[in-house]
Design goal:
Radius of gyration: 27 Å
Distance between the termini: 84 Å
CATH superfamily of one domain: NADH-ubiquinone/plastoquinone oxidoreductase chain 6, subunit NuoJ
CATH class of one domain: Mainly Alpha
Number of helices: 10
Strand content: under 5%
CATH topology of one domain: Four Helix Bundle (Hemerythrin (Met), subunit A)
Structural class: mainly alpha
Number of strands: 0
Helix content: over 70%
Length: about 200
């Protein structure tokens, strides 16, 4: 029964992942992406990593995928306009793809050809009776991989800033607040103090 559930989740993950790339409608792509995350979370549950499965559902499905869905639905994306500039950015995109491919190759080569890789693979898993799943992940994440964890946060920050800059549009005829100009205004231009006599109005 476990093998059947595993192959079911695996097949659905691969199929939905392929539909993310091949779907013509961006909204459908995001919905297939959410389905992929749910299937991967099911695989993590089968592996006994319930904490990772919970994070997959809460963070990726509940936040990232829903955010993608709202962004895709709010932005007016024209496929024809995107295809027009494809050839212009093709060299830059190819260069970025080659850099990422070389980095992945170095990572996998280091994992296979490292001199102490056999000792790492043979490292015993922590006893779940003494250490919970969450504690084991935290102990490894914040000790051995703390710099990579911080680097991932920097990458997410850069991505957030880039998405804000891409969607920020300056339109004419729209009034905007300038906090610096408001804070620099002199006090006498902001308020007017009047002395009111007792028993009389303004």
């Amino acid at each position: 029964m476990t093998a059947f559930v595993f192959y079911l989740f695996a097949a659905l993950s691969v199929a939905s992942g392929a539909m993310v790339v091949t779907a013509r409608n961006p909204v459908h792509s995001v919905l297939f992406l959410i389905l992929t995350f749910f299937n991967v979370a099911g695989l993590f549950v089968l592996l006994g990593a319930e904490f990772v499965a919970m994070i997959m559902v809460i963070v990726y499905v509940g936040a990232v995928a829903v955010l993608f869905l709202f962004v895709v639905m709010m932005l007016d994306i024209h496929a024809v306009t995107l295809r027009e500039g494809f050839l212009k950015i093709l060299p830059l995109g190819s260069a970025v793809a080659l850099v990422l491919l070389s980095e992945l190759t170095l990572v996998f080569a280091g994992w296979v050809l490292a001199p102490d890789i056999d000792a790492v693979r043979a490292a015993p898993a922590p006893d779940l009776a003494e250490l919970s799943n969450t504690e084991a992940i935290g102990a490894v994440l914040y000790t051995d991989y703390i710099y990579l964890f911080q680097l991932a946060g920097v990458v997410l920050l850069v991505g957030m800033i880039g998405s804000i800059m891409l969607t920020l549009r300056a339109r004419s005829g729209v009034k905007r607040q300038d906090p610096l100009a408001q804070a620099a205004r002199p006090l006498e231009d902001c308020i007017e103090v009047k002395k009111v006599a007792i028993g009389k109005g303004v």
